[in-house]
Amino acid sequence: MKFGIFHELSVGKPWRPESESEVYHNALEQVVLADKLGFDQSWAVEHHFLEEYSHCSAPEVFLSAAAARTERIRLGHGVMMVLPPFNHPIRCAERAAALDIISKGRLEFGTGRSATWTELGGFRCEPDDTKEMWDEAVRAIPKMWTGERFSHQGKYFSMPERPVIPRPYQKPHPPMWVAVSSPETAIQAAERGIGCLGVSIGSPGEYESRVKDYRRVIKDCDPIGEFVNEQVNGVTFLYVDETDEEAQAYGTKLAYTFAHLAAHLIGISTVYPTPAYKTPGLLFGLRAPAGGEKAPGGGGVIREGMGIGSPEAVIKNLKMWEDIGVDRMVFIINTAEQIPQEKVLRSLELFAEHVMPALDKSVREPAPAAR
Amino acid sequence: MPDQGTLTEASVAHTSPVLAPLYPPPPWKLPGARILRAVFETDKEAVLSNVPPKLTRSSPPYGLVSIEHYADSPIGEFSLAHQFIGCRAGFFVRAFALQSVVDSPVALSALREVWGFPCVPGKVTLAADGKSGSVEGERGVICNLALGGEGEELAPDLVRFDPILTLRLAPSLQEGTTHDLIQLVQVDAEVEAYTARRGKGEVTYPDGSDWSILACRNPISAVSSVVDTELPLARFVMPY
Questions:
Q1: Is the minimum CB–CB distance between B162 and chain A shorter than 8 Å?
Q2: Which residue of A62, A141, A212, B37 has the smallest Cβ count within 10 Å?
Q3: pLDDT, block means (10 residues), chain B with 240 residues
Q4: ipTM > 0.90?
Q5: Is the pTM here over 0.80, yes or no?
Q6: Domain B26-162+190-233 sits in which CATH superfamily?
């Protein structure tokens, strides 16, 4: 199993003039430390208008700054919105290739379509159309990267023949992923031969059938890129401290604040009934089950499989993910600066010192080699 | 000693008058209800100034207007219209009842007294095809609502009705105090839709309408549906 960190760049109120700058620069410091400590990946979201929850609307800028400060860690768009009303697919291909060059081949290219009315409504993007828009874009982008020239006449964008440049540093192109928050999207990732980038906070039990379905379907996939990227990333929170009690105090703050901010966004299914969005996506994964049942792993927002606790507890929790076949775990390490920066950095150090060595670091590489 | 009355608290009817309540107690089964509901983005200031401090706004703020016809209820046929604020109670999505109009005096009493809906009397009209409706108060039309075009058919299981929050009040009869009782009440109706059409929604308020405090800044969606539902006992009652 390998490990990564995941940045939403959430900025809690009350806002001060320097609040956003502090969050961005704290996050960059975290990426630099993660690189030194042996974390494998650093991902940044693309979200728009999601006040407090995520102020990361230009992730390519953040990731470029991270690339310039680091040597080894892979840098992921987690994810880039590839819908034409957000980002024209040509610009997606160009910007991703440029970042791959700047980072000397360290880009992981995650793709997605947004799960909020806040964003889709802001870009006047019809929720019913986003799955088809995403599909058209993700099929075109690897062809832009690898063909000498590219032309396209599609439903949602078209272009006459042009060379789309620059070309990615990685050959044939960076590994491709899609944000997965529903069983249907896990299957769609597998059918297209791209990585399954879990973005909903859940327990290993909730992920298990999704992973099995993904592994089953990808065996017979029709890859949209030049190679199959068979990998499953899970996502959860990480806060490691000397004792479980100390870790849970900050870990609860982290998970609660994340869920509370997420609850104030408007999930598509809340206001716009459509078969294109049957599940609430990332947004409400931490709600307690209905009927007063306790969530797996205990009450409140601490759930089974979270990376919250002493090193021993976190090893035990992460083994659950390994057991269900997740290749990599990616961690949300702070939200709205609820945890002081020095404690976040110390948590990463404790993780690298005590947890990483205890877990198998082998991982299924993209085939054929993308690097 | 003088003889005492023997009417215990437990044996008092669910509402006064003691011997002849105007309406039966909840839950009320409401089969075959027709509901036209629109969701729209609205102004932050209007939302924040009209919800209690326990509730928070979404981003962006949104409101809902609903026109409902109940052909079959324990008190007979009636029509009801609501204006809601979309809000959050902790992690949860809720619809806070801001203003309501109902065309039946018995329903008016029950909805105010039992569930805390802010009902006033008026005329509520929902077209037979469920695609348009209007709400009238004592000074005329206060809201027009339309599906927006013909709409498109929608799988009924996609239609969502969030739990409703109301304010339940008992006014003080003592000088210098405001409320003897003020509670937030959560009403979670079980709703099973069996037909649904979705459109963009058109919400308009004539000039001077009381409902214009929740302006329709950007329509999101509207759904016309036929449902079996009920008005249940409150799921939660919380202090203000």
A1: yes
A2: A212
A3: 81 79 95 98 96 94 98 97 96 95 97 94 98 96 96 95 93 89 93 97 96 97 98 88
A4: yes
A5: yes
A6: Acetoacetate decarboxylase-like (2.40.400.10)
